[in-house]
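Structure (tokenized):
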């Protein structure tokens, strides 16, 4: 990662000078919108059970120990962003798309979750639906009259992009010079995706800002969970800067400002800096240290050897940790972060 230090700051400063920095235009249109359906697209931050137990990246024990008590396809010890977002708008967490075949139309009462852990805006090496394909799934359901136009009009879409395109690029040893064009390409496609979801008639659409990837345990493990990686933070900031600009542009195209950013970056950063959330009386002694961790870099949380021996260490209480594993928050971590975003989130409804 060191080689990025040479050219990134210059490029990044150029972009900040050429635009308006991170200033986002907040138009507070008082709306009393009560969604009747939630549609979810994206990755493991919002997946509630689409990755099949037969898939190599399915979250196995001890995932799910807090809720529902066993592995159920969530990448955490318990509830994830989708569950909390659904609760905030007065809905139950929508059914994972994979389960629709079994339960049929009655399962779509609260919407559908199309997100698959491990996916990105583009292909990420897992044989899973990209975000474009996930949006195709909704389009097919609409074409099949699973949802009426009125139901779509009273729906909310939650879109999560938490960095799989970038980690996949790094894992394939993509040249560091290609990172800026990749970020531009990813954000451009996010914009296409958001516009497409809106074109179906979906009334409100939220896209997550990229969290502070420089602070995830996978990265901070190199410093014994003591400090974040400043080089990586510039890439994250650049993504969020372009995303803010793209969302502003999309809102200018419409007259009802349907798009908004769910600022996970600020919320996560606040929890990390404050070692918790003082408002919610939540404390994390070392927010950079995960609850569940492989005993060495080649193992992940949940790894076992061929004899079934654990190759990971688990903390005594998941509620004491902000991060559950190398990249995902605990249920308590999500709760702490979303408590910070609560009032901003509710302004849009």
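Design, position by position:
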């Amino acid at each position: 990662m060191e080689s990025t230090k040479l050219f990134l700051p210059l490029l990044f400063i150029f972009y900040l000078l050429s635009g308006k920095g991170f200033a986002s235009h907040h138009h507070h249109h008082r709306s009393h919108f009560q969604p009747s359906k939630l549609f979810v697209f994206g990755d493991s931050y919002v997946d509630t059970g689409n990755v099949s137990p037969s898939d190599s990246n399915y979250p196995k024990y001890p995932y799910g120990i807090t809720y529902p008590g066993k592995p159920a396809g969530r990448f955490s010890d318990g509830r994830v962003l989708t569950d909390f977002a659904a609760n905030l708008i007065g809905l139950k967490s929508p059914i994972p798309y994979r389960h629709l075949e079994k339960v049929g139309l009655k399962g779509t009462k609260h919407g559908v979750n199309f997100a698959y852990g491990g996916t990105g805006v583009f292909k990420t090496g897992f044989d899973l639906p990209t975000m474009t394909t996930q949006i195709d799934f909704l389009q097919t359901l609409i074409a099949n009259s699973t949802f009426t136009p009125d139901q779509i009009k009273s729906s909310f879409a939650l879109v999560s992009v938490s960095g799989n395109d970038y980690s996949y690029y790094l894992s394939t040893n993509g040249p560091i010079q290609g990172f800026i064009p990749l970020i531009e390409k990813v954000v451009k496609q996010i914009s296409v995706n958001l516009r497409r979801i809106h074109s179906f008639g979906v009334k409100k659409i939220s896209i997550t800002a990229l969290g502070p990837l420089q602070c995830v345990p996978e990265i901070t493990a190199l410093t014994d969970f003591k400090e974040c990686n400043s080089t990586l933070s510039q890439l994250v900031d650049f993504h969020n800067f372009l995303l803010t600009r793209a969302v502003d542009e999309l809102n200018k195209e419409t007259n009802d400002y349907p798009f908004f950013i769910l600022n996970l970056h600020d919320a996560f950063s606040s929890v990390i800096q404050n070692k918790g959330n003082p408002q919610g009386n939540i404390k994390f002694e070392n927010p950079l240290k995960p609850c569940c961790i492989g005993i060495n870099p080649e193992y992940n949380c949940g790894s076992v050897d061929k004899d079934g021996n654990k190759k990971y260490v688990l903390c005594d209480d998941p509620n004491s940790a902000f991060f559950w594993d190398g990249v995902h928050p605990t249920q308590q971590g999500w709760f702490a972060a979303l408590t910070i975003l609560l009032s901003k989130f509710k302004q849009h409804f």
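Reviewer-requested clarification: Residues 1-28 have pLDDT under 50 and may be disordered. The radius of gyration is 20 Å.
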